[in-house]
Amino acid sequence: MSRISFLHAMWIVLRKELRDFTRDRRTLMLSLFIAPLMYPLMFLGADKLATMRRETQLDKPLQLPVAGMEQAPNLMAHLASLGIIAKAAPQDIEARIRAQQEDLALIVDEHFAEDWRAGRPAGLQLLTDTTRRTADVSVARVRAALDGYSRSVASLRLLARGINPAVAAPLNTGTRDLATVEAKRGALLTALLPLILVMFAFIGGAHLAMDTTAGERERQSLEPLLTTPVARGALVSGKMLSAVLLGATSILLILLSFKISAGLVRNASMSMDVSFAAMGKLLLVLLPLLLIGTALLTLLAAAAKSMKEAQSHLVWLMMLPMLPVFALSVYPVKDTLLWLYAAPFLSQSQMIQKITRGEAATPEQWMVYLLSSLALAALLWLAAVWRYRQEKLAISA
Amino acid sequence: MILAEALRKSFPGKGRDKQRVVAVDDVGFTAHDGQITGLLGPNGAGKTTTLRMLYTLMTPEQGRVLVDGIDVAADAEQVRRNLGVLPDARGVYKRLTARENIEYFGQLHGMSAAAIAQRIAKLAAALQMEDFLDRATEGFSQGQRTKTAIARALVHDPKNVILDEPTNGLDVMTTRGLRSFLKQLRAEGRCVIFSSHIMQEVAALCDRIVIIAHGKVMAQGSSDELREAAGEASLEDAFVKLSGSEEGLHA
Predict the structure, then answer these.
(1) CA-nearest residue of chain B to A228?
(2) Does domain B1-82+192-251 have CATH number 3.40.50.720?
(3) How many CB atoms lie within 10 A of CB A57?
(4) What is d(CA A156, CA A23) in angstroms, rounded to the nearest whole number?
(5) In this predicted complex, what is the ipTM?
(6) pLDDT (tens digit, 9 = 90+) per residue, A331-381?
């Protein structure tokens, strides 16, 4: 019998926890494969839905209820040539739009024909509910058709009076989009991925972290374990390391499934930086968060009276990664501010966005990020070790 | 040898009045090598708290514990090395086999694989657990679990053995087997302390008996000495008289 080192003890605990955990096949499968499988499904599903919406609403003939269509036969013919078929609007059209039975309607002013012939602006009204997003595409389509008609008739009228139509267009405004191609294509993914990755990195090791502390105490095996001569710090570190390994495996699988699913829909004009280098950087960004999450969960589980109490912490912990992201969407700041890279959760989502957009973080940003997040992880680890040294730990209530 | 001197431990009270509950007050005794020392007392008398202070899980507020001359407060790790403990909580890892459960503790004690295997063979024979040694402990009977926990506690061949109510929940045959195992430990020259609320068991096994009630030592000595001190012919009457209540009998 000999004294064993801190690291050796940690290794023994780690090996036992992983062996114990991997024998529980169903839990193993659930905690490792749910997220990697969900991701491509969500991703392909969202892509498919967006394509479907565009196709059905842009290419198919659009039925447009029109009140007073007999006043503007030429306009109706123009709309019909663009696949917008006018039909007489029922009397209760406003109520029908409110009830979402119709997306939109066009009201032709009762003096339309008169004004048109006199060369005065002829009135049209587009009825829609702007808070209903289902109407977006149809409204934009009708509006574009009406604008086009208005412009071409205006040009004709100017020409008929011997004036160059360019006189009536003093400005010619165009937009040049400076977003990188990757950023534009992966708009949906970039919105979704950081949150998923951050959440899974944060609570990916939750199951093991809680089970090996609160669960072990509840199963009455923690007290015997504490009667061995192993340092408490080594015990809790071994347990935490096993949770970190589980979390890291789960993140690796998510990244892999992300790479594969991004490859699947590349043709559907969706692409981001999914090179192995980018994946490696993502892993480097997520590992400190995994350490932070595991240490925090272990600390909470050691302080909780029961497994149930420990698990109820998960609710607010799941919300935690989302808060800074919401805050940013309400109050956007430029991503060049250095403190952004020191704030937990905020820094991860910034870094992940940079990587997936194909931009490079500066060495300064990397340094601030890694130092601050590793320092937080170390602090929480110390707190967990301190909690493990408390007398109360072993005694289940 | 385990020496307990004037141990005291209290816990924060619950409820509105919040008075601290004194669980153990001025408990002291000596447990010698080659002897079985029994802590006898009704439920809630402070036996488990006393034992927890002996096996370093709790720090006494007053008094001290010496194990083989080493102060627990000074070097708890070295004390744990010389101590085999069956705590009140005796859960085993249900997805591991009995052998793997025992091996884990052997490794934590820094034993080599060969030494562990040798020791497991010996303990399995002594505790009659060969037929379930390589089964996952899920679904074990209470007796099988207790045997696994005892083997796990003794894997490192400790000189001192502390068992908290080892016969709790066991059937007659298993209890008999366990008693002869404890006698074997004594014959090997170990210092054995065990707690129980069953008087017959303590009378049958122990060289020295420490009667604890309400957190205090009411009396201690051999079975004969206790009878003499109480002036009663039977140990049962002596116990009732010395522990100052009848509750021990019904516990």
Answers:
(1) B80
(2) no
(3) 17
(4) 80
(5) 0.92
(6) 877 777 888 888 888 888 888 878 877 788 888 889 999 999 999 999 999
